[in-house]
Amino acid sequence: MTALEIEAILHRGVPLGAVWGVRVLSATAEEARLELPHDAALLRPGNTVSGPAIMGLADMAMWAVLLAGSEGRDESLTANMHVNFLRPCGPGPIIATARLIKGQGRSIFGEIAIRAAGASDVAVHVTTSWVRMATPR
Q1: Fewer CB in 10 Å around end: N or C, the chain?
Q2: Are 25 and 33 in contact (CB under 8 A)?
Q3: What is the pLDDT of residue 133?
Q4: Are the C-beta atoms of residues 105 and 130 closer than 8 Å to each other?
Q5: Which pLDDT tens digit goes with each residue over 82-137?
Q6: Which residue from 59, 18, 9, 24 is spatially nearest to 39, judged by alpha carbons?
């Protein structure tokens, strides 16, 4: 699947991603990169992207990996997300790089690093677990 195909599925499944203008830059079954563009409505005091927007981007980035690995047919659900805010991201755009750590079986584990676009330092580190939904018989 192309990044644009995954982006279309992501925007249908999470309409807020379309409202925010989230772009899928790349996606494979192992890793995905998503961009959240600058949007003044997503900022908090201090002129930096808000926590809720960052967490939403992280969740969408992990789902993009799962969509890429399932030809767009993933219906897994987020079970847990642990977020470490290390430094402000700035006003955006920001880039989320999601990496699949364990994708087999019912439990799925991933890691997301979020940086200001063009920055090398990680601003937010996220670990997440998902539950693969049983397919109907």
Answers
A1: C
A2: yes
A3: 85
A4: no
A5: 999 999 999 999 999 999 999 988 999 999 999 999 999 999 999 999 999 876 55
A6: 18
| 130 and 77 Cβ atoms separated by less than 8 Å | yes
Kindly report the three-state secondary structure assignment for every residue of the chain: CCHHHHHHHHHHHCHHHHHHCCEEEEECCCEEEEEECCCHHHEECCCEECHHHHHHHHHHHHHHHHHHHCCCCCCCEEEEEEEEECCCCCCCCEEEEEEEEECCCCEEEEEEEEEECCCCCCCEEEEEEEECCCCCC
Query: Domain 3-131, CATH 3.10.129.10 — does that match?
Result: yes
Amino acid, single-letter form, for residue 41: A
pTM of the model: 0.95
Candidates 88, 84, 87; CA nearest to 46 is 88
Looking at the chain, how many residues does it have?
137
The domain ranges of the chain are 3-131
Residues paired with 35 in a beta bridge: 23, 95
